[in-house]
Amino acid sequence: MIKQMDPKRPTLSLVKMVVLQIQGDAIGGRMPPVPTYVKDCDFDADDGRGRIIMTQNRSDAKRFALASEALEYWRTQSKVQPLRDDGRPNRPLTAYSVSILRDDQEPM
Prior knowledge:
Elements: E1 18-25, E2 36-42, H1 45-48, E3 51-55, H2 67-74, E4 96-102
Antiparallel strand pairs: 1-2, 1-4, 2-3
């Protein structure tokens, strides 16, 4: 039996995916080569400081179905070291300012 797709319900291939583009570090110092995207992050590596893998190849970037999922990933807190020395949440990726871009959107 062949199932016909419902044209009102988009399939994953029709949904625009989003990526995280690194704009620079959060304090305005170091700038990565442009454009640079988040490929992966181990939030618990290096005693909770995190290990971020970046790529300049957009096709290698980590993809998210929704911008809210990308934002949630960016704000992920380390489980190994949940708090920083100042008592605030330890979120390794937030050391970088990012933009959330659709697949069809030009890099900033």
